[in-house]
Design goal:
2 domains; about 250 residues; mainly alpha; globular; 11 helices; two-stranded antiparallel sheet
């Protein structure tokens, strides 16, 4: 039996079909992780970074679409949040940590211990029940090692600089130090998304151009993460930190 294009188009408009489509797109992140892991094992850092970037793009798109299409209501059989966490643990944590080990980014002494420390605390963060605040900031560093590791690699950071950055970020993971979610935080959303997209573009361009050394690109690689950390620091220590005290007082009332 032939299915006309209009019939297919009509089916894709159905809320359940759209919900399944979103879940399938999310699940593609697992394939990105597999190919990224293969690239790390093969010692091809360029391909590994590209697959991490593709996984990040998929992760950035599926969430807003899922909320817009109310996927949780129409396809309750699949928990999109759990699916996302499973994939994120691989693409945002396991592969970047293996990347650091495979490409000698950590000190010879203690490197494996530091990598284990990152994996351990990231697993605990992934299990937090208070990952996000009411205004959609993350509590603790949200395991975005897929951003941090390629940045440090392209900056040719020394092993001890890499180790220091990893330890410092990992130590925040069980705290309430805030980190911005570029796609969900409403305040300065356009700027937040622009900075994130700019960082991703610079990473891909510098990866493609390697081993050329683009000084402007290096400064952008430093500036973009500093902006993300700076916004989180302002949310943690600035006037907006009162929002957390208000929420705590309401909870105890």
């Amino acid at each position: 039996m032939n299915v006309s294009p209009s019939t297919t188009e009509s089916a894709l408009r159905h809320p359940v079909a759209k919900g399944w489509l979103v879940h399938c797109v999310t699940a593609l992140g697992a394939l990105c992780g597999m190919f990224g892991l293969m690239a790390v094992v093969d010692g091809d850092f360029k391909v590994a970074i590209v697959w991490l970037a593709v996984a990040m793009i998929v992760d950035g798109i599926d969430g807003p679409v899922a909320r817009a299409w109310d996927v949780r209501t129409h396809v309750p059989r699949i928990d999109g949040y759990t699916l996302d966490l499973i994939i994120d643990y691989v693409t945002c944590i396991v592969i970047p940590v293996l990347f650091m080990i495979r490409f000698d980014m950590l000190p010879n002494r203690g490197g494996l211990l530091i990598a284990s420390f990152v994996l351990f605390l990231s697993a605990l963060w992934m299990s937090r029940t208070d990952q996000m605040t009411d205004d959609l900031y993350f509590n603790g560093f949200p395991c975005e090692w897929n951003m941090i590791v390629p940045t440090l690699y392209l900056l040719e950071a020394s092993p001890w600089v890499t180790a220091t950055v990893c330890i410092a970020l990992a130590l925040t993971q069980l705290t309430n130090w805030k980190f911005i979610h570029p796609m969900q935080v409403r305040k300065r959303r356009v700027l937040n998304v622009t900075v994130t997209v700019a960082w991703l573009a610079v990473v891909l361009l510098m990866t493609a151009d390697w081993p050329a050394h683009n000084e402007v690109g290096k400064w952008l690689l430093i500036a973009c993460p500093l902006y993300i950390v700076g916004v989180g620091a302002w949310r943690t220590l600035g006037p907006e930190s009162a929002l957390d005290h208000g929420a705590a007082n309401t909870a105890h009332a």
